């Protein structure tokens, strides 16, 4: 087979959020761009992650609303779950978003899209089955995949991951999930609300990277939904078949189910990329790169999950922006210059940005304070009958907002109010100055900020000063 040789300004491997951001930006700036993708355009998020999981969660939310409507005076019988229609809803969501990430769209932007596996043959050349590309710069954005732990017997069972769980034609009767992180909690709650029995096995604590108090609210919700939670225990052995599985824990207990989902973390995908030929080093997190995402080969950048800086779609998009800014605008931007929010889309949802309370105390000791407010004192939450949760502001010296956490209805959207404050290095006073429409959940940030100042504003000296001024007015 004849291999066609191409010269380009930029060669991108991987068409997920990071790769597509770089390819789109460079192409619109008139650069000659080649994009390799051996799998589906849109990467993990569109096809196996963010989009299908949120569509599934929405179906589960509707089922939950039917079951619990009686408390609002809306009575209905137990919902009938048509799993085929749930799957169709998920596919419609993917299909509706797909054109934004499609090969046709990027070719219309001027990108040469090659749907083949590519690997380095030397420091400035990559080759696929039909193409050889020599480029000035390269971006590796091949992402991550589900990490499969070395559990005895797991390799002999047809387990599920976030990549193939969407292939199920029928709902699992009894789903056992290894891992109590965001994927395990989201899918566990969704399948439980759609009628499956669910057990989540977590070696540490549920949602261990999130604020402990707020993660506890999610734990309560899962238990109330009927999810069986096992924390502080590891899976020691797995036996069974694709539809009849048994997990033996390290304390001797056994958990049985019809299906097994492995969701204990992610690992970088860089096998078969010819990294040694390109002079690129790796570690457990991903490609070794600096804060501008440049690898040991000055021509090659890492972007997205494979950069080892975190596995979030919006972080991957930010990485793409950092690379475009540095290469084509001459703006010296570091990937760590932006505060990256994270969200868990359970019910209630949980979101945070910056330092958690525990992380701040570890880093700053007693030089921090915490301002909080609860949704049971928020009029909109009370009107909705959804008062679970609240917010925390983590404050440093001078009232600088070091981080924030929120758990409760629409927490993922509401975090954006305080995200800008954190990103700009703002102070808690900034949150007191905004006027929020009434009644909205967003008022809760102002209430938390006001709580921080209450001892000063309404304290002894303030009362004395007000008394003095009142004599002259």
TrEMBL record:
Matches recorded under InterPro entries: FAD/NAD-bd_sf, FAD/NAD-binding_dom, FAD/NAD-linked_Rdtase_dimer_sf, Pyr_nuc-diS_OxRdtase, Pyr_nucl-diS_OxRdtase_dimer, Pyr_OxRdtase_I_AS
Sequence positions that bind NAD(+): 179-186, 202, 265, 305
Transmembrane segments: none
Disulfide bonds: 45-50
Cofactor(s) recorded in Swiss-Prot or TrEMBL: FAD
Occurrences of domain Pyridine nucleotide-disulphide oxidoreductase dimerisation (ranges): 340-449
Family from the record: Belongs to the class-I pyridine nucleotide-disulfide oxidoreductase family.
Name of the protein this chain belongs to: Dihydrolipoamide dehydrogenase
Organism for this UniProt entry: Marinicauda pacifica
Phylogenetic classification of the source organism: Bacteria, Pseudomonadati, Pseudomonadota, Alphaproteobacteria, Maricaulales
């Amino acid at each position: 087979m004849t291999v066609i040789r191409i010269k380009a300004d930029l060669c991108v491997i991987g068409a997920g959020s990071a790769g597509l951001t770089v390819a789109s930006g460079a192409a619109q700036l008139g650069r000659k761009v080649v994009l390799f993708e051996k799998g589906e355009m849109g990467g993990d998020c569109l096809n196996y992650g963010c989009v299908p999981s949120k569509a599934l969660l929405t179906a589960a939310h509707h089922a939950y609303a039917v079951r619990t409507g009686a408390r609002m005076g809306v009575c209905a019988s137990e919902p009938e779950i048509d799993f085929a229609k749930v799957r169709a809803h998920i596919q419609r969501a993917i299909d509706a978003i797909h054109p934004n990430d499609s090969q046709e769209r990027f070719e219309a932007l001027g990108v040469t899209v090659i749907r083949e596996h590519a690997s380095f043959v030397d420091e400035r050349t990559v080759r696929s089955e039909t193409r050889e590309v020599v480029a000035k710069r390269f971006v590796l954005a091949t992402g991550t995949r589900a990490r499969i732990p070395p559990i005895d017997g797991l390799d002999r069972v047809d387990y599920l991951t976030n990549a193939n769980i969407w292939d199920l034609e029928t709902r699992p009767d009894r789903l056992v999930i290894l891992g109590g992180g965001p994927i395990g909690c989201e899918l566990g709650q969704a399948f439980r609300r759609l009628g499956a029995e669910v057990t989540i096995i977590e070696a540490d604590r549920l949602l261990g990277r999130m604020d402990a108090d707020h993660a506890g609210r999610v734990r309560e919700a899962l238990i109330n939904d009927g999810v069986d939670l096992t924390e502080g225990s590891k899976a020691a052995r797995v036996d069974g078949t694709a539809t009849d599985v048994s997990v033996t824990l390290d304390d001797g207990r056994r958990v049985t189910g019809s299906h097994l989902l492995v969701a204990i973390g992610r690992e970088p995908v860089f096998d078969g990329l010819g990294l040694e030929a390109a002079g690129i080093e790796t570690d457990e997190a991903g490609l070794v790169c600096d804060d501008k995402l440049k690898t040991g080969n000055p021509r090659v950048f890492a972007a997205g999950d494979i950069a080892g800086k975190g596995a979030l779609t919006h972080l991957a998009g930010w990485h793409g922006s950092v690379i475009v800014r540095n290469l084509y605008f001459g703006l010296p931007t570091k990937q760590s210059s932006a505060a990256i929010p994270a969200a868990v889309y359970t019910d209630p949802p949980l979101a945070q940005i910056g330092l958690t309370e525990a992380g701040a105390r570890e880093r700053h000791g007693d030089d921090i304070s915490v301002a909080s407010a609860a949704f049971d004192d928020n009029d909109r939450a009370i009107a909705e009958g959804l008062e679970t949760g609240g917010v925390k502001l983590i404050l440093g010296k001078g009232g600088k907002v070091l981080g924030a956490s929120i758990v409760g209805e629409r927490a993922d959207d509401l975090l954006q109010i305080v995200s800008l404050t954190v990103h700009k290095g703002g102070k808690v006073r900034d949150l007191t100055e905004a006027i929020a429409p009434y009644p909205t959940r967003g008022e809760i940030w102002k209430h938390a900020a006001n709580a921080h100042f209450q001892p000063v504003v309404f304290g002894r000296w303030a009362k004395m000063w007000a008394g003095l001024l009142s004599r002259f007015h």
